Amino acid sequence: MTTPDPPPHRRRSRVPPALAALLACVACLGLTWAVVVPPWQAPDETAHTAYVQSVAERGALPGGDRPLLSSEQGAAAELANTFQVTGQPLTDPEWSPRIAARRDRLGELARDDGGGGSNPASSNPPLFYLYESLAYRVAGGGDIFSRMLAMRLASVAWLLVTVTAAWLLAGQIFRRDRRLQLVAAAFTGLLPMMTSVASSVNPDAMMIALWTLALWLGTALLRDGGWRTGAGLGLVTGLALVTKPTSYALIAPVLLVLAIAAVRTRARTSTGQAARGLLAGTGALVVPLAAWVIAARLMDRAADTQLAAVAAKANLREFTTYVWQFYLPKLPFQSDYRATHPNFQTLADGLPLYDTWIRTGGAAFGYLEVQFPEPVYWLFAAAALVAVAACILSLRGRRRALDAATAVFFAALVLILLAGLHWTEYRLLQAGGQSFIQGRYLLPVAALGGLVVAQATRLAPAQGRTRFVVHAVILGALAVLQIHSLALVMARYYA
């Protein structure tokens, strides 16, 4: 006697075993990264922690003439030798027995005398820091190191959201092919840079999750055109805008998706239905942003400091020269941008496409000083080329299965993100600043990389075990890379 199928609502609510196993694995790795990396040895974590502490202890955003760090955080950073270790591979953290003896004294120091306007993170909107302040308050009875761990674990929760959203995005693209969904989501969640960044106190953890949700909801909206999906897309976009200014790159692609979905809905149903969907999406987008703008006005602070800084007038020809020489050799009629802007060579020396996107995007931990031997990055570059080539070849004969609007959505998102990063760096270089672009800034679109890898595996025959073996090799390679990345970090800080 066969067992009857469960009701449809029960089938939909059940988490697929592959996704559940992947989430458990990612959660364990996130916890490991959160524990292994010493406090404030993740990018910009000192400033982000100070921002959270200002919100949690003073109920105020950073600003004014206060010191950057509170007495407690400053003493804890000195105790752990934080500033001497940052970016210095030959200097180790302080692990002597005196730390245990002096940690108890940290509780006697002030927590609320920091949060000054010199905080480089103070131009960020407050959503992530409000979220982290909850974890900070939950662990408020412990010392600052305990609160740091609690905040890192709160960031790991967003990593799980990212993996789930990548799974759902792949389900839209590959028609719920569970193996392809697993490969795409595993690539997204098991990248060492992803687990490293998303297990630290950094707004990128929340931003990456919101971007991945936007990718999924935008793709779903182009398929079904439902107003609820449009409202969800608008909401996660609005939340991303009040998480980090980088998310302004989402606005144009999301509005394009809403417009295309409205046109398709109008063709299928009615003008009224299309209008409702468009209004739901744009309204949900505007509400979080408007709330932040109004709150910033009431607090007499700028809501978009970074955006205003990069929106200033610039020489378009010189910007084009900068972008060209970032990727390609100088043309005879061009001026030498490197000669006039020496700081441009900080990260973009040699082969920028390789040095910036492959090396620092593949595995460069701490403040970029913890890296693998050079041949490992050659393997990263070769694997990326193979994946892209196999993806392109696998799409031959499947062109009709690829929705043109979805492809435009993905391409617009990547191109606008890149353009925004380059424009920001160009403006900084013009002002005498340093190059700032790093590979981790492409993590918001890491789920698209997962789609490329999963699509590339479709070049293997579906019959037999060939494709299964390919998938197993990819998952195994990601696991090995994670283990070696953790070993590299542990050797750096504990050997």
Order of helices and strands: HHHHHHHHHHHHHHHHHHEEHHHH
Radius of gyration, in angstroms, nearest whole number: 23 Å
Spans of 5+ residues with little confidence (pLDDT < 50)? 1-6
- Overall mean pLDDT score? 87
- According to DSSP, the number of beta strands is 2
Name its key features:
495 residues; mainly alpha; two-stranded antiparallel ribbon; 22 helices; 2 strands; globular; disordered N terminus
Overview of this protein structure:
The structure is a single chain. By secondary structure, the chain is mostly helical. The chain has a domain at about 160-495. The chain has 22 helices and two strands. It has helices at about 10-15, 15-35, 45-60, 70-80, 80-85, 100-105, 125-140, 145-175, 180-190, 190-200, 205-225, 225-240, 250-270, 270-300, 305-310, 315-325, 335-340, 350-360, 375-395, 405-430, 445-455, 465-495; strands at about 365, 370. The protein has a two-stranded antiparallel ribbon with strand order 1-2. It is globular. It starts with 7 loop residues before the first helix and ends with a helix. Residues about 1-5 have low confidence and may be disordered.
Concise description?
The chain is mostly helical and 495 residues long. It has helices at 8-13, 17-36, 45-58, 71-79, 82-85, 98-103, 127-138, 144-173, 178-190, 192-198, 204-224, 227-241, 251-268, 271-298, 305-310, 316-327, 337-340, 352-362, 374-395, 404-430, 446-457, 466-494, and strands at 364-365, 370-371.
